[in-house]
């Protein structure tokens, strides 16, 4: 209740932050029991704070933006293939998603939950007709005697049903009862069930920090919604003699001019006609610091450069170095894991050997790394240890005639000859 009454009012300063007792349902929403975090719990955390959403969105969108290629091993030589039916499928996965949507959701679920599932339609003996990303919270594995999944159950409206393990071209795949849909699990490192059954959310290690910041956000929002914070106090001088009607008229005029939305309240009380602005309390400052710590913890989990989280002191050089680190440590390793697993799934369906062919990305298509690559090529060219064609191959350029010869300056002579001339 706000002190709008005219009689003398005693003002008690309190922090806007309230203490909220976390019950079992909220604890479940915040995620996990400590030893394992389910896919739905991890997704709830992602939906609850920008500390998670920002790095996950950045990384998944950068992965989706990579130009895909197929690399074929021919002895010691690697041949880059940019036109293939597998690439066509990945660039047109299904009629409901663009390639960007499909790759972004695949990468995001992998980052949030530590696993993601891909479903392929069509007879499993032939190349897939369509690809779909199935969210991990819709998938339930059934553990076999060897600890690995013997089958998967998919709920929801998309390709639901049971997928059982069966042998296929020297490996095992999971096929539904009709044989017209395959489910493939992509999972990362996990300490749960020997890492054989499910992936482990990277957020598990930062769970406590994330819980604290979410509880603080919920507390602050609850306080604001209930008007638990004053921003301005108008205090009338004790010598001012106003009757109730005059006081209420003044109060109405002040509120109409200065009051903002809920949470930005103005108080009019007896006393000097002073205006006092109430700043952040110590607890508000503590919450701000806690929020920064949580952002830093999540950024470290995803190897997201702290310099990209935002700073007024950011320079162009720092920004460029931050983007290089972003791709080197946050984007490309996750992209490699995703597309290596897709290689295992798709190559046999197209009659190709996964040991010889693999799905990868074109490093020359990454704009953020062009500056570094140009500097590296310049240094290698000045060292004069490689041919022009070797340097051209690094940036994906075709060989040119006469490009396989290393040239030296005509005035250079062996050291022994130079000593004899002296």
Give a quick rundown of the structure.
The protein contains 12 helices and 13 strands. It has 422 residues and is α+β, with helices and mostly antiparallel strands.
Q: Could you explain how this protein is built, in words?
A:
The protein has helices at 24-30, 39-48, 50-64, 85-91, 99-113, 207-225, 244-258, 282-301, 316-346, 370-383, 388-394, 415-421; strands at 68-74, 77-81, 115-121, 130-134, 139-143, 149-154, 161-168, 171-176, 181-187, 230-235, 265-269, 274-277, 357-361. It starts with 23 loop residues before the first helix and ends with a helix. With 422 residues, the protein is α+β, with helices and mostly antiparallel strands.
DSSP summary, beta strand count: 13
Q: Outline the low-pLDDT stretches.
A: 1-33
Helix coverage percent: 25-40%
Describe the strand arrangement of the main beta sheet, using strand numbers: 4-3-9-8-7-6-5
Radius of gyration: 31 Å
Mean pLDDT value: 79
Structural class: alpha+beta
Order of helices and strands: HHHEEHHEEEEEEEHEHEEHHEHHH
What share of residues are in beta strands? 15-25%
CA distance, first residue to last residue: 99 Å
Largest sheet, in brief, is: 7 strands, antiparallel
The global form is flat
User: How many alpha or pi helices?
Assistant: 12
């Amino acid at each position: 209740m706000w002190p709008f009454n005219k009689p003398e009012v005693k003002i008690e300063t309190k922090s806007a932050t309230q203490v909220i007792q976390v019950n079992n349902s909220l604890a479940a929403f915040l995620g996990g029991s400590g030893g394992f975090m389910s896919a739905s719990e991890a997704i709830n955390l992602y939906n609850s704070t920008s500390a998670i959403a920002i790095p996950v969105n950045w990384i998944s969108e950068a992965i989706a933006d990579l130009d895909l290629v197929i690399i074929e091993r021919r002895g010691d030589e690697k041949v880059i293939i940019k036109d293939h039916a597998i690439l066509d499928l990945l660039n047109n996965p299904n009629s409901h998603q663009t390639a960007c949507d499909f790759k972004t959701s695949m990468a995001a679920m992998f980052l949030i939950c530590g696993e993601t599932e891909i479903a392929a339609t069509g007879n499993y003996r032939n190349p897939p007709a369509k690809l779909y990303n199935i969210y991990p919270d819709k998938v339930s594995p059934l553990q076999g005697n060897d600890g690995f999944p013997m089958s998967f159950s998919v709920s929801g409206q998309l390709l639901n049903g049971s997928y059982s393990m069966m042998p296929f071209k020297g490996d095992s795949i999971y096929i539904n009862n009709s044989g017209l849909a395959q489910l493939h699990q992509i999972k990362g490192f996990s300490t749960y069930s020997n890492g054989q059954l499910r992936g482990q959310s990277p957020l598990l290690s930062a769970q406590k920090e994330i819980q604290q910041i979410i509880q603080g956000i919920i507390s602050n929002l609850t306080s604001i919604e209930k008007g638990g914070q004053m921003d301005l106090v108008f205090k009338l001088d004790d010598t001012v003699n106003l009757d109730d009607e005059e006081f209420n008229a003044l109060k109405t005029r002040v509120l109409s001019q200065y009051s903002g939305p809920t949470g930005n309240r103005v108080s009019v009380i007896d006393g000097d006609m002073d205006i006092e602005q109430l700043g952040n309390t110590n607890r508000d400052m503590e919450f701000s610091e806690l929020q920064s710590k949580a952002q830093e913890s999540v950024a470290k989990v995803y190897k997201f450069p702290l310099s990209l989280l935002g700073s007024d002191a950011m320079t162009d050089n720092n920004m460029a170095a931050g983007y290089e680190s972003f791709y080197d440590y946050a984007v490309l390793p996750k992209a490699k894991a995703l597309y290596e697993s897709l290689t295992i799934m798709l190559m046999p369906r197209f009659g190709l050997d996964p040991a010889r062919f693999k799905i990868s990305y074109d490093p020359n298509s990454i704009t953020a790394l062009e500056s570094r690559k140009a500097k590296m090529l310049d240094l290698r060219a000045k060292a004069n240890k490689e041919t022009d064609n070797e340097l051209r191959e690094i940036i994906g350029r075709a060989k040119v005639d006469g490009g396989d010869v290393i040239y030296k300056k005509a005035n250079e002579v062996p050291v022994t000859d130079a000593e004899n001339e002296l």
